[in-house]
Amino acid sequence: MPIVDTLHKSLLNKGESYIFEKDKADLISIVSNITYNILTESPKLVADVANGIVDKHVLETAIIKDIDKNKYHYGIFRDELIKKVFDFMFGYGELQQYIEDDEVTDIDGTKYNEFMIKKKGVKKKVPINFGNEKIFDTYCKLIAIRNGGILNENDTHCRVTDEKRRLRINVSIKPRNTSGPAISIRKHRIKSYTLDDLVELGMINGDIKELIRKLAFSDATVVFCGKGAAGKTTLLRAFINVLPEMERVLIAETDTEIYPDKPYCIEQRVKKENEGGRPVSLREIVRDGLTMSLDTYCIGEITGDEAWEFIKASFTGHRGLATIHSESAEDTFSRFLILSKGVSMQESEKTIKEMMARSIDVIFYLKSFKVVDVLEVIGYDAKQDRFLYNRLFSYKIRHEDINGQIEGEFVRCADIGDRLKRIFHRRGLI
Fold first, then answer.
1. pLDDT for residue 405 is more than 50
2. Which homologous superfamily is 195-426 in?
3. Where does 164-295 show beta strands of DSSP type E?
């Protein structure tokens, strides 16, 4: 397996030895050292076990030999030690318990001994300590390279996806990180939240749920916006899963994150330069999707010039769904404009704004896993250079704690306007 060979070369610097002091080491130090030794001496064995070519018992034998050779087993149950080595090699080691906890959504390590998780929307410190920076550096490289990334002295940051466990992983090391290696893991649920689940969790209320159902069964273009970790992808995923069963959907992503439960979804992601062959951008996927027989196409996260393709496609009658980062619901069009300007030079700013206003029907803004604003787009007033909205719902915040968690209540601000009435009427929804 090339990954292991690459890993082997990446972890070892020429002439460098891995020093281990038995009398000072804790369990994670021992596990890391055994892993390092096995990868140094038998990278092919690790590869063959990972691919199912060789039984794991052969690797267990090699691990036991290293344990006995270095007398690591005193005071430690051998079976526990072997399991921890396997977790370190093929799982997530010290982070494994949080990977397996369905209520944990984020795991962030800023240093080898500084970790926090987000559980049920609340951040908390966790007692994780990799022993020293060298061990944590080895761990970060292992995780990145094992998932198809490149991480070394020249490529000091990478973003990878563990599709089996549905994880998005960002890893960075020195010299980019002057404070040492860091890792950030975003977990996506194996089973999607339903709209009823989101009502129970307080992301939406019953009225917003019914609006979403009508939007899903219409041909409205909907954008979900907010800052990072606000719940945008969670709501988008729930939205996709209530689309009509026979509706064909193209899902275009930079990294796999949506994991739809709905049938008749075509899932595509970008092809990066390090994956071999010609790279494929998100913009290309969106553009090529317009030649397919699709009912809806979805961009997992708009971050670049694919914004213009989204606007053009929606302007010509295709139904679109997307997430995008923005400071507020009203800021969404400004964000689209910034991302579109570089590839829409033939159009005036006024024309682009008019196209955006006619393309996007509804904007959901999320904060701290709650929908805090729902806007029906009315149009664009060129004379006053402003977008016009009909605010359907808002969330009245009574309290916000130091972790950014908010408490309050949903408020219905207005009934749907003429734009949504026309859209819903076309599909017999009103």
1. yes
2. P-loop containing nucleotide triphosphate hydrolases (3.40.50.300)
3. 167-172, 182-187, 222-226, 249-253, 265-269
